[in-house]
Design goal:
Blueprint (H helix, E strand, L loop, with lengths): L5 H10 L4 E4 L6 E4 L2 E4 L6 H12 L4 H7 L1 E8 L2 E10 L2 E8 L25 E7 L5 H13 L5 E6 L12 E6 L7 H8 L6 E4 L5 H12 L3 E7 L3 H10 L6 H11 E12 L4 E9 L3 H9 L5 H6 L9 H10 L38 E7 L5 E6 L3 H8 L1
Parallel strand pairs: 7-11, 7-12, 8-9, 8-10, 10-11
Antiparallel strand pairs: 1-2, 1-6, 2-3, 4-5, 5-6, 12-13, 14-15
Length: 395
């Protein structure tokens, strides 16, 4: 296999049904297929990966990568839309690539419960989509946006890092902004949004208290805001948002969340061998009066019992959702795709000032490779050097 560029690697990963592709100097490519990590092919050289990174990032943004030692982007490679993270590691330059679905993300195509439509009916408030890394939060957000896009005339503004799904405006008017390319930060994009007349805001990820504060403010000022947070349950998602703020203002933040909350969705993925499908399992919390009271008092441990008895209010526990899945038979498969995505035209890059980094530009070790051990593992011993050393040798 030709490993001088990413295209054959992405094509091979797509052919094997992989959701992720990991590339590291001295190691064979690693694919995540139905949640399991498998290796495929021979080890990749540090020089080859550096050349791939330089070609992908481009000369204009290469200095940013050299400063920050990481770079995020979305690209169409070998006909597959990919979310790409290029990173500096102890062995050189590595890649973490998410292969995005080529079909239109909707509640039906993602095999999600139709009850999720009720979440996007209000015209203001906060919807949190939570779950562990790789659980499909971005896909569920995209499906909720599509529900609005096909049914209502709203101005939808998305803030993502990077853009994962390209939306084709239907009934709605949609703008998508990528952090680092179209705006310098989530904070700046949220401040800008208040002057851009959106009806719906989608925040790709709430990473810090300032982003969370601006997101909550947008939800309180007449916008419907959809955002993601990492957690393993709906209750934990609320705890993470409120607990991210200083303790002296957590009471006021809890009251703010209780007042503007529309719903919390927590999801995880489960592979069904009988269907050969990876399906999302959901937990859904709706803000009834008891739930709001528990949030204000920060009695999070009491919310789980309310969810157990809250079926009539539109709440779902994982157990109740699994029971629904056991009865469902009309599963959507990837072969029954909707119309393909529009061809992606790379937008012109607006040259932004280099992003600040607190990390010093110190040299980091790169790697040499050792022979395979008898057990089949590839033993890799870091050696002196790093990206700076590799760059110097190539000059």
């Amino acid at each position: 296999m030709d490993t001088t560029n990413l295209e054959p690697l992405i094509a091979a990963a797509a052919a094997q049904g992989a959701s992720d592709l990991h590339l590291e100097a001295g190691l064979p490519p690693a694919l995540r297929v139905r949640g399991r990590l498998v290796v495929s092919g021979g080890p990749l050289s540090a020089a080859a990966l550096l050349a791939m990174a330089r070609e992908l990032i481009g000369d204009e943004q290469w200095p940013e990568f050299v400063e920050r030692r990481s770079f995020d982007c979305s690209r169409r490679i070998a006909g597959v839309r990919c979310r790409v993270n290029v990173l500096q590691t102890s062995r050189g330059v590595g890649f973490a690539i998410r292969l995005l679905s080529s079909f239109e993300a909707t509640l039906q195509t993602l095999n999600l419960h139709p009850a999720l439509r009720e979440l996007v009916q209000p015209h203001n408030g906060l919807i949190l989509v939570s779950g562990p890394t790789g659980s499909g939060k971005s896909s569920t957000l995209a499906a909720l946006i599509q529900e609005l896009n096909h049914s209502e005339a709203r101005h939808i503004l998305t803030i993502e890092s990077p853009i994962e799904y390209l939306f084709r405006p239907a009934a709605s008017f949609i703008r998508q902004r990528e952090v680092g390319r179209d705006t310098p930060s989530f904070e700046q994009a949220l401040l800008d949004a208040l002057r851009e007349d959106p009806d719906v805001l989608m925040v790709g990820e709430m990473r810090d208290p300032e982003t969370m504060r601006l997101t909550l403010s947008a939800a309180e000022t007449g916008h419907l805001v959809l955002a993601t947070v990492h957690s393993s349950s709906c209750v934990e998602a609320l705890q993470r948002v409120i607990g991210a703020f200083p303790s002296d203002i957590q009471n006021s933040i809890a009251a703010q969340v209780a007042d503007c909350l529309v719903g919390v969705v927590c999801q995880r993925l489960r592979y069904r061998a009988d269907l050969n499908l990876t399906l999302p399992e959901l937990e859904i919390l709706r803000p009834t009066n008891p739930v709001k009271a528990h949030i204000r008092m920060r009695d999070f441990f009491k919310i789980s019992s309310v969810m157990e008895t809250g079926a009539e209010a539109g709440m779902w526990t994982f157990a109740r959702y699994q029971a629904w899945m056991a009865k469902k038979s009309d599963w959507h498969t990837a072969s029954a795709t909707a119309a393909p995505e529009p061809a992606e035209a790379e937008p012109p890059l607006v040259k932004l000032p280099p992003l600040r980094s607190d990390t010093p530009k110190s040299a980091r070790p790169t790697a040499g490779t050792a022979p395979k051990s008898p057990g089949g593992r590839i033993e890799i011993e870091p050696v002196e050097g790093g990206l700076d050393d590799v760059l110097r040798r190539l000059q």
